[in-house]
Amino acid sequence: MSSSLEIRNLRVAVAGKEIVQGITLTIRAGEKHALMGPNGSGKSTLSNALMGHPAYTILSGEILLNGEDIAKMPADERSRKGLFLAFQYPVAIPGVSVANFLRSAVKARVPKNVKDGDSEAMRGFRKTLKAAMDELSIDPAFATRYLNDGFSGGEKKRIEILQMAILKPSIAILDETDSGLDIDALRVVSDGINRVCGPETGVLLITHYQRLLNYVKPDFVHVLIHGRIVRSGGPELALELEAGGYESFGLAPDRAAGG
To answer: Which structural domain range is residue 66 located in?
Structure first.
């Protein structure tokens, strides 16, 4: 059975306020979906709720990953099931190297009754990490550096893509991966996304702007306003949004500008 993420009439609240107001969306393996909307529309709320952040309360609805309801699972279990979230603002973890962080993430997916020496993933970890860093053109020196400590915005986002390459999720959520990147960094990160996201991975790209979609071509585009998907279509929808702005979808000018 191919991988899929089914979001069914999902409603989510933060600090008692309902933000996501009934989203229904299905993402299948090999598909790239772009979710676009202004600030405050609920994009990051949706991504955090899907990943199981405890500050986000699911009021109603279902989240089905490969047919299994994960709405009540903790974040680590959702990850082991094949869900991945690349953060908009990756945090630094001084004292923990990139290699050790990734090794721990891979080990967390190995059944507890299996020793490292008996796990193919653990035995081949160094080789896998080197191959992934080579493919993404990441300097091997980053493996020994502390995770995101002193990294530029572009470097942080590339390490997020490296994590995705190592963990090989069935569904990847990329929360404004283009945020804070200059054009050169955007090209590099986009190339990494295209390399990692193959036919076995479904992708939800969350973004404000068309520019990311110039490099990572979506199959479907959805416009999110006030916690609801107001329109869905193909790649041409992002171009329409770029030309007419969110005002063309009924959003007031001050909100359309991200206020």
So the answer is: 4-92+148-256
Q: Measure the CA–CA gap between 159 and 65, rounded to whole angstroms.
A: 25
Asked if the structure places residue 50 within a domain, the reply is yes
Other CB atoms within 10 Å distance of the CB of residue 150: 9
- Pair 220, 33: CB distance under 8 Å: yes
On whether residue 235 sits in a domain, the answer given is yes
Tens of pLDDT along 74-106?
A: 999 999 999 999 998 999 999 999 999 999 999
Quick one: pLDDT band at residue 259, thresholds 50, 70, 90?
very low
Integer Cα distance of 183 and 194 in angstroms: 16
Total of domains in the chain: 1
Tokens of 143: 């493996």
DSSP 101-166: HHHHHHHTTS-TTS-GGG-HHHHTHHHHHHHHHHHTT--GGGGGSEETTT--HHHHHHHHHHHHHH
- Tell me the chain's radius of gyration from C-alpha atoms: 18
CATH of the domain at 190: 3.40.50.300
